[in-house]
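Q: Please design a sequence for this.
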């Protein structure tokens, strides 16, 4: 579904991504973990072309996209093609980014109507079904300021799903939420994973990564340090940097009472 080949991205002199290569299969859930500044969010933004890459190639369903080389010539997708690709790869951010003067229903309906020119009646039916899906059937006419953070984030997820994407990107979507609201957002994401949605999830929720991911990727300093199954990554990471990170974050979670916090063991000799 998604393939990255040697992606590089810098902001001025700061090199944020360094030859990052990654494949995500259809229906796969990939969780990306790592310390702040590792390049995780930039990676997602490059996949959705919210940030242009400096070099490398991004493939969506086997086709090179955005900026690439064909027959030795540099190629750039036109804006309408980029918009089409973005509609196929939905993204949910840490901040909810809802339009404050529109209701939950109107927020969900906007993109399909104005970007895809779909029928308002068809979009309304889909939006109402999505509000049911995310557990907000009673908040159809509520404005963002009338919703909790968890409810706003679920509207944001429904808004992305309204475009009927083939894959979803989640960028630390629970990090701005109070602890008691995190579970309601993770439940929606677990449901999407169970339904076979292709997902790339940047997260600090180790319990979610352990239970839901097909594969866990650890990034640090702009590179993919290690990747593997959740069992391997959380029980016996091979890289010292991975082990140190998991040790620190899982010990912190243990102090907060997270039942999923089990420090990784030392690797077998």
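A: Design:
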């Amino acid at each position: 579904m998604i393939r990255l080949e040697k992606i590089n991205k810098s902001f001025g002199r700061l090199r944020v991504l360094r030859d990052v290569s990654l494949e995500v299969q259809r229906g796969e859930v990939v969780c990306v973990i790592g310390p702040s500044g590792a390049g995780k969010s930039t990676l997602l933004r490059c996949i959705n072309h919210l940030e242009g890459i400096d070099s490398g190639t991004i493939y969506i369903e086997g086709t090179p996209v955005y900026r690439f080389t064909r027959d030795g010539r540099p190629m750039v997708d036109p804006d309408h093609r980029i918009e089409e690709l973005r509609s196929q790869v939905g993204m949910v951010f840490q901040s909810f980014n809802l339009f404050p003067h529109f209701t939950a229903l109107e927020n969900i309906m906007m993109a399909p109507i104005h970007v895809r020119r779909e029928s308002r009646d068809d979009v309304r039916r889909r939006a109402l079904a999505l509000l049911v899906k995310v557990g907000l059937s009673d908040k159809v006419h509520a404005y963002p300021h009338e919703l909790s953070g968890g409810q706003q984030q679920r509207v944001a997820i429904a808004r992305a799903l309204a475009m009927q994407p083939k894959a979803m990107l989640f960028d630390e979507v629970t990090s701005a939420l109070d602890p008691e609201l995190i579970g309601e957002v993770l439940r929606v994401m677990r449901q999407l994973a169970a339904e076979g949605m292709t997902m790339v999830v940047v997260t600090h929720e180790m319990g979610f990564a352990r239970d839901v991911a097909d594969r866990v990727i650890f990034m640090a300093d702009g590179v993919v340090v290690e990747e593997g199954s959740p069992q391997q990554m959380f029980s016996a990471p091979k890289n010292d940097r991975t082990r140190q990170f998991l040790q620190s974050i899982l010990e912190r979670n243990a102090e907060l009472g997270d039942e999923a916090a089990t420090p990784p063991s030392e690797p077998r000799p």
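Q: Thanks. Anything notable?
A: Residues 179-194 form the longest helix (16 residues). The chain has one domain: 2-254.
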